[in-house]
Amino acid sequence: MRYLIGLALAAVAAAAGSATEVPVAQSGPFRFTVTLPATMSSAVDGRLLLIVSRSSDGEPRFQVSDGPSGQPVFGIDVDGWTSTRAAVIDGAALGFPLDGINDLPAGTYTVQALLHRYETFKRADGHMVKMPMDRGEGQQWSRAPGNLYSSPQRVTLDPRKGGTIDIALDQVIAPIQPAKDTRYVKHERIQSALLTKFWGRPMHLGANVLLPEGWDTHPAARYPLFIYHGHFPATFAGFREEPPDADLKPDFAARFNLSGYNRVQQQYAHQFYKDWTGPNFPRAIVIEIQHATPFYDDSYAVNSQNSGPYGDAIVNELLPFIEKKYRGLGEGWARFMYGGSTGGWEAMAAQVFYPDVFNGAYIACPDPIDFRAFTVVDIYKDKNAYYLDDTWKTTPRPGHRNYLGHVDSTLEEMNRLELVLGTKTRSGQQWDVWEATYSPVGADGYPMRIWDKRSGIIDKKVAEHWRDNYDLGHILRRDWNKGLGQKLEGKLHIYVGDMDNYYLNNAVYLVEEFLESTRTPYYGGEVDYGDRAEHCWNGDQTRPNALSRLRYHQMYMPKAVERMLKTAPTGADLKSWRY
Fold first, then answer.
1. Domains of the chain (ranges plus CATH)?
2. Contact between residue 536 and residue 343 where contact means Cβ atoms under 8 Å apart
3. 0.85 surpassed by pTM
4. Per-residue pLDDT reduced to its tens digit, 89-139
5. Which residue of 187, 214, 333, 554 has the smallest Cβ count within 10 Å?
6. At what angle do helices 472-479 and 460-470 cross, to 10 degrees?
7. For helices 460-470 and 430-438, angle between their N-to-C axes, nearest 10 degrees
């Protein structure tokens, strides 16, 4: 899950300069007019966003979130927009958390507009869709290269008095420079034949590869492969060869109520480098996969009607490429996965859908693994995702809490923001990617809604499709005694905090109940909970969450090696990589 990214980016915005005060034409209805650069000769499609911030510091485009500090945003679709006409954001434009711009209180604000650009895809299923292609940033509309935006400007406005505010998209986000290879970290990118065929244009998969100590001096060694699933990684995260920066100005991590967390991260990243190159750490290849889609910063590592055959592309194209180039063992007994949140779900899903390809999954704080507890919604029994089923009162369902249970966002608020950021499941955010991954394709070529984005009413036909194809708890119950159980014995290890911010522990309870009931075979794995631990607790009972989340490799790789030694087939190479 990726809800905290908007809050993190807000800190970056503080470095920007102050905005220029501009006048407001006090005539006519209240509205904003936005223009493209006159030099643009071709028409563009996309989502035009207007952000209005009370703050005079930083850029409003980095201040959007569904949390208490989020600033108002309004959006409209633009199709075939040219520099010869202005786009208008008026009272009809959908907003969050305000319904529209007419609900803005009179006052002085910093305003900024941004165009999230779409391109047209002619997919192999016959549908033509307009989507935001990832451009190396991991589907972040506020910093996607090629997006146009305006310089922030200060305005004093009063919707009751009317008036027009003119905004020019005078800036463009620059391309991202590719990460550089080092002795230990390599960066790979391949064109996927499967995905290229599906999307009707070249599509790629990438991997950040962490090579073991001694890889270059042991040319005869062949190595196990570990996949660290998670969100889009620009380079290999949490691995720092140089010592921590003694001059680094300490930040404050509101999530953990911890000062100097940036220093802590550098310390732990450097410690991982020392562990990795030390004498007793497992010698293996670790990869982080880059598989951003037009819907999100990654594909959820499964095949999908809307996103395409990403599961097959990863398993049958990317992994063989990596293992051949970097001398992987290339067999299922020597492949493991781990990850948290989205990465936790991906690790479990890939293990369930490709049970022979991997030998174990270490699954931390996974996105909902049983849709009877899709966070706090039972998509099969509940009628409405946003409100409890009740005759006489309307009680909102919570979306985000802290470890004491205090709620700061509801499900409706989270989904409303996504609808403002992008219609037709194009927001690039969490609830939309679940829909894009799990739903069938609609008649218009876009994902069918699991529930109406405005009302919250659940579509039971779509829920059935979700259940039969992606509800991991349901699939385990359905197929365990049809041979799946034998293939998964000893491979599923699940960890979650019992106060997960997004209520992800609820689904784990349901899956644990089934796993513990299994016989012939018994599942033989592990399910563990962190007391009052928030997202994303990963099984370490000895450290606070803020620290344990920085030690995924050290926690899981030794466990996996122990399993390899017990389960490797006769004649397997258990020596060349153990030096």
1. 5-172 (no CATH), 185-367+472-567 (3.40.50.1820), 372-468 (no CATH)
2. no
3. yes
4. 999 999 999 999 999 999 999 999 999 999 999 999 999 999 999 999 999
5. 214
6. 60
7. 80
